[in-house]
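USER: Study each token:
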Amino acid sequence: MNSDARCPNPAATWPQRANSLMVQTYLAHSFDIRVYYEDTDAGGIVYHGSHVRFLERGRTEFLRSIGLDQSVLMSADRGKPLLFVVRRMELDYIKPARLDDLLTVTTELKELGGARLVLEQRLMRDIDMILTGRVTVAAISSDGRPMRIPSDIRKRFLGA
């Protein structure tokens, strides 16, 4: 396999490619969530901002499913605190979700870089696609500076 096949942007210069790795063993996680009254507008349709909260819960449960508890990552007990923050979010709202719907949030790791993750997320109601999203998450230290994802955490993302 040539190195460009693993790189999301083959036209990128070598230093850009060296810091980005497309994950070969895709990790995916699904999480069910019910739509409550507080999630909707006056017409019973899920408010667009509520979708963002649903996706956040999906990402949190994704991390938890591979043994990464954000409160532990943020604590000084493990050495240098690590926080994952949203750097970029692209959302495509396809169909409305409504009060009392049972939705499934699916989170899939697509890229693992030195200090970032790219995740694809879907929000489904049975077989109906409600929303698709691509979220770039950055690893930062407690003082807000970018930091490399430690090797023990990288191994969890790689399924090792």
Observations:
- Residues 23-157 form a domain with the Thiol Ester Dehydrase; Chain A fold (CATH 3.10.129.10).
